[in-house]
Design brief:
Histidine_triad_CS, HIT family, subunit A, alpha+beta, eight-stranded antiparallel beta sheet, 10 strands, two-stranded antiparallel sheet, adenylylsulfatase activity, 24% helix
C-alpha cells in the first residue's frame, strides 16, 4: 500500500511530512531488479574501497559542504549526483539523519526542480530503510526553512526521524527538540569543541551500519 505524503505547516514554522506505514522486510537475497527513474542515479557513500558496490570517483577523499562547514565523507552514508545523507552529531531519536543537496543552497525555494525532486526521492529511500532498520512504525520529515523557522545552518536539509509509539510524550514536542538540536549543532560546528555527545568514531560506525542498508 502506498500513501501520499502531504506537506503542512506546523505551529513551529516547520514544513513537515509524516508517514505511517508498514514496511515489508528487505530481502537481501532477492534477484528482483527495482526500476529507478532515469534522472535519479545514486551512489553508496563508502568509507572503504573494500566494500562491494559502486563508489563515487571522489568518495575516498571528498569532504561534503554543509553551509560554511565541511563534513567528512565517513559521516555520509548515501549520496546521489545532487543529494547526500549524513548521520547527525546530536540526534533527537535513534536514526535521526539529515538529507542535504550537494550544492550549497540556503532556502528551499532556491532549489532547482531537479534538486527538489532528487532531495525528496533520497529522503523517501533513506527514510524507508531507516524505519525498517530501527523497527519503527512511522517517520517524521521536517525542514526548517529560514532563520525565523529555527534554521541555524544556511544550507537546506531535511530531518528524518524514525518514530515509535511513546518516543516523545507529546508529538509536537519533537519539533522543539529538533529546534534545540539544530542550535546545538551550529554551536558545535562554529566552536569546533570536543564532541562529548558523539565522537567521530561513533558517527563513522553508525554511517557504516546505515551504508549496508543500500548494498
Amino acid at each position: 500500500m502506498v500513501k501520499l505524503l502531504v506537506p503542512f505547516l506546523s505551529s513551529k514554522g516547520f514544513i513537515t511530512l509524516c508517514s505511517s506505514r508498514v514496511l515489508r522486510p528487505i530481502a537481501t537475497t532477492s534477484t528482483t531488479t527495482t526500476r529507478v527513474p532515469s534522472n535519479h542515479r545514486f551512489h553508496i557513500a563508502r568509507a572503504s574501497s573494500s566494500s562491494s558496490g559502486y563508489t563515487h570517483p571522489k568518495m575516498e577523499s571528498e569532504y561534503y559542504t554543509f553551509g560554511p562547514y565541511k563534513i567528512h565523507h565517513k559521516e555520509v552514508f548515501y549520496s546521489t549526483d545532487l543529494s547526500f545523507a549524513m548521520v547527525n552529531l546530536r540526534p533527537v531519536l535513534p536514526g535521526h539523519v539529515l538529507i542535504c543537496p550537494r550544492r550549497e543552497v540556503k532556502r528551499f525555494v532556491d532549489l532547482t526542480a531537479d534538486e527538489t525532486s532528487d532531495l525528496w526521492l533520497t529522503a523517501q529511500k533513506v527514510g524507508g530503510r531507516l524505519e525498517y532498520h530501527h523497527k519503527a512504525s512511522s517517520l517524521t520529515f521536517s525542514i526548517q526553512d529560514g532563520p525565523q523557522s529555527g534554521q541555524t545552518v544556511p544550507h537546506v536539509h531535511i530531518h528524518i526521524l524514525p518514530r515509535k509509539m511513546g518516543d516523545v510524550e507529546k508529538n509536537d514536542e519533537i519539533y522543539d527538540a529538533i529546534d534545540a538540536k539544530e542550535k546545538e549543532l551550529k554551536q558545535k560546528l562554529d566552536l569546533d569543541k570536543e564532541r562529548k555527545d558523539r565522537s567521530r568514531e561513533e558517527m563513522t560506525q553508525e554511517a557504516d551500519e546505515y551504508r549496508m542498508l543500500f548494498l
